[in-house]
């Protein structure tokens, strides 16, 4: 997007942006000069250093131009500084003219764009002045000033600032973060904590994924069962032994979940608005609808007669405990559209922002194709295919949102079958959807997999939490360019910006969300705020160091592993193995005859995941590397000289995945023994069978089990292939560690 700096930028100040992310108008731009410049994230559009300094002192005057917003922004700044440094400034006061010494927040007469985010910050030996045309810009200027005052942490009575001038504005107007609370509910206090951090990174859009197959999280007054039923599920594996994730101490199933009352939503929306963040709600349709259909089965396809009536006694599906692509879709009856319009009417009352996200992704059409009633409706509507039917569905919802003064946004599948006239496309399947939407003259938000999918792990450290093991590193996020080269310059304005997506299938706690988001959110902030030529990763890492200290001060549990993403680190771990606690130090150099699962290689890497055990319910659980399409591992170059036995620590977890058309590609090995067996083969997975370890003892243990078998003498190094001959994939057998034993 074009920078909007018409009134704030002195002539020539933006020229010569340095690789370090600043334009030093009165200083050298060499590496030494850049290294001495303030550590700001995101990098400002232009910064020039001046002679002299200004010292901020305890009790210093803070003033603002008259108005409620400048006063609130000034107070917010004062409170944040006191929290971080213990330096308490004076209560802000209104003033029409700048005082002799102090900090001033001033709104200037607006020109042109009255919603601008640009600002200037001038520090002289006499005073500090933050100026902007709009309160948004004034707020971002206060964030920059706060960063300057927290370049070092610790309590302080006075803080010196170098004299300088910053003129700044964002490159994009959509700088977003999506949080999925449908898979795992996040409490309101955590949402507020996340919004605080978004504001301190100058992000301005919080995309709130509120509904999905696994949960409906938004109270709708007209349809109370959406949260009475749809907000709760029994976790996969609940029918197992007592102590598993979905069972109480007696083994009876328990439900997990939660929802937001409308008052909680209003409070969160207001809290976000105070930080100049717009909340974009997502209500999924026509797919990812199983939680809604569990609450109101007549919304689905099952049980729908050809005459449009609903067969009494039709069983409702459960709120799903599974991950993946489900085939439960909303039907296309008039009553279902009335339901959706009722829901969206309440949504638009709660969320005053322009956009409502309707999903539109991964709508598996199997039930539509098989339903005589849906096919009859297609004929009534003169719709020739299921893809066209989804397009009709989205277009109809768009017309309703238009009537409410709102704009529809959806994932890039809404392109299929014909795009609704005024829709905005969120491109997630790479950049192709965004390129096509821009070509058609539609606005685009770039959110592509995998680079902006923060459920991908950010390092290969052995203690990384559950998630997708194909790494998306801090450097990967930083290198992302929101405007693909395939979009002509004339259409580049269609790219509103970018956002990262936090899918929480494997993040059941706020701590894990924080680990996934931070510090990659800082890279996202710079990608969406700063000019491309102002970005330099090495300098970004320099500027990130104070940001990490701020995270610590705010209690943000960031991933330190992001700074060393591709280095296996030694770790110690405590495991419960068949009821006995064992401690072991694991290192790729210290324990060559013992390997954790992360040090093994999956055989085919079709869909490898780091998955968490479903037991114990309350304590820390082991995490396993497994390919859910082909559970098979290779112990590469195993040193077999002198080895007389092998120990394998195994676990079992529910196979809670719906893979739609890929289900037929899941590898299922024939059962080798009555309860199944772990088979170990030499050199190749179809090679000589070295041993079979029966799974009988492990089958009765919801936690980890140590299996042991003797090995005939061998010499040299060989690859070992480990597979489970269990006749299926549920439960999904997994490996925690392999140990070669020497007498």
The separation of the N and C termini measures 68 Å
Broad structural category: alpha/beta
Mean pLDDT: 90
Strand tally is 34
Main beta-sheet strand count, sense and barrel state = 8 strands, parallel, barrel
* Percentage of residues assigned to helices: 10-25%
* Shape category: globular
Spans where pLDDT lies below 50 across 5 or more residues: 1-34, 569-591
How many alpha or pi helices?
A: 17
Task: Tell me the Rg in angstroms.
Answer: 28 Å
Strand content: 15-25%
List the strand order in the largest sheet.
Answer: 8-9-14-16-17-18-19-20
What would your notes on this structure say?
The protein is of the alpha/beta class and 743 residues long. 24% of the residues lie in helices and 25% in strands. Strand 18, helix 12 and strand 19 form a beta-alpha-beta unit. Helix 2 runs parallel beside helix 3 and helix 4 packs parallel to helix 6. The radius of gyration is 28 Å and the shape is globular.
């Amino acid at each position: 997007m074009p920078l909007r700096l018409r009134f704030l930028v002195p002539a020539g100040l933006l020229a010569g942006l340095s690789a370090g992310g600043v334009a030093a108008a009165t200083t050298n731009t060499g590496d030494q000069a850049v290294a001495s410049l303030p550590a700001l994230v995101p990098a400002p559009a232009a910064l020039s250093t001046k002679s002299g300094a200004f010292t901020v002192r305890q009790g210093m005057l803070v003033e603002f131009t008259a108005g409620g917003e400048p006063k609130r922004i000034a107070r917010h700044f004062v409170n944040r500084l006191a929290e971080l440094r213990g330096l308490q400034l004076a209560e802000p006061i209104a003033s029409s003219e700048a005082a002799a010494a102090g900090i001033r927040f001033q709104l200037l007469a607006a020109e042109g764009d009255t919603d601008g985010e640009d600002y200037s910050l001038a520090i002289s030996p006499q005073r500090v002045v933050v100026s902007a045309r709009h309160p948004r810009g004034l707020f971002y200027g206060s964030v920059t000033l706060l960063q300057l005052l927290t370049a070092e942490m610790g309590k302080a009575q006075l803080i010196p600032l170098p004299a300088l001038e910053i003129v700044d504005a964002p490159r994009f107007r959509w700088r977003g973060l999506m949080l999925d609370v449908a898979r795992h509910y996040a409490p309101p206090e955590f949402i507020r904590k996340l919004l605080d951090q978004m504001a301190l990174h100058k992000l301005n859009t919080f995309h709130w994924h509120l509904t999905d197959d696994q949960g409906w999280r938004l109270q709708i007054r007209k349809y109370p069962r959406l949260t009475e039923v749809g907000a709760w599920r029994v976790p996969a594996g609940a029918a197992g032994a007592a102590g598993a994730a979905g069972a109480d101490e007696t083994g009876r199933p328990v439900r997990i979940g939660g929802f937001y009352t409308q008052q909680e939503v209003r409070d969160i929306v207001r809290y976000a608005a105070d930080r100049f963040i717009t909340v974009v709600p997502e209500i999924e349709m026509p797919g990812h609808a199983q939680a809604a259909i569990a609450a109101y089965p007549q919304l689905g396809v099952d049980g729908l007669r050809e005459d449009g009536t609903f067969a009494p006694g039709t069983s409702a599906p459960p709120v799903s405990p599974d991950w993946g692509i489900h085939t439960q879709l909303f039907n296309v009856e008039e009553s279902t559209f009335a339901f959706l319009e009722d829901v969206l009417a309440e949504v638009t009352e709660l969320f005053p922002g322009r956009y409502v996200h309707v999903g539109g992704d991964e709508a598996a059409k199997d039930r539509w194709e098989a339903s005589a009633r849906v096919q009859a409706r297609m004929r009534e509507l003169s719709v020739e295919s299921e893809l066209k039917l989804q397009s009709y569905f989205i277009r109809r919802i768009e017309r309703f949102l238009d009537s409410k003064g709102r704009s529809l946004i959806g994932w890039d599948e809404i392109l299929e079958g014909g795009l609704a006239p005024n829709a905005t496309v969120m491109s997630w399947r790479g950049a192709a959807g965004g390129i096509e939407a821009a070509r058609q003259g539609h606005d685009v938000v770039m959110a592509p997999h995998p680079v902006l999918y923060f459920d991908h792990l950010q390092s290969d450290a052995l203690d990384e939490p559950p998630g997708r093991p194909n790494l998306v590193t801090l450097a990967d996020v930083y290198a992302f360019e929101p405007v693909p080269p395939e979009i002509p310059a004339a259409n580049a304005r269609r790219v509103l910006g970018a956002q990262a997506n936090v899918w929480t299938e494997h993040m059941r706690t706020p701590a894990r969300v924080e680990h996934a988001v931070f510090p990659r959110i800082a890279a996202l902030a710079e990608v969406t705020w700063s000019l491309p030529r102002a970005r330099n990763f090495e300098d970004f890492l320099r500027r990130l160091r104070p940001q990490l200290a701020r995270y610590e001060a705010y209690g943000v549990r960031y991933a330190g592993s992001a700074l060393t993403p591709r280095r296996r680190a030694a770790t110690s771990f405590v495991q419960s193995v068949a009821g006995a606690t064992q401690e072991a130090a694991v290192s790729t150099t210290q324990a060559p005859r013992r390997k954790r699962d992360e040090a093994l290689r999956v055989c085919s890497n079709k869909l490898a995941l780091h998955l968490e055990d479903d037991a114990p319910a309350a304590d820390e659980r082991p995490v396993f590397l497994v390919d859910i399409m082909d559970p098979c591992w290779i112990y590469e170059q195993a040193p077999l000289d002198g080895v007389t036995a092998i120990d394998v620590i195994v676990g079992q977890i529910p196979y809670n995945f719906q893979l739609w058309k890929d289900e037929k590609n899941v590898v299922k090995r024939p059962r080798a023994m009555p309860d199944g067996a772990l088979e170990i083969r030499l050199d190749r997975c179809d090679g000589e069978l070295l041993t079979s370890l029966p799974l009988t003892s492990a089958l009765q243990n919801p936690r980890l089990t140590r299996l042991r078998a003797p090995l005939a003498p061998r010499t040299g190094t060989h690859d070992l292939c480990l597979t489970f001959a269990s006749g299926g994939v549920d439960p999904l057998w997994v490996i925690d560690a392999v140990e070669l034993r020497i007498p």
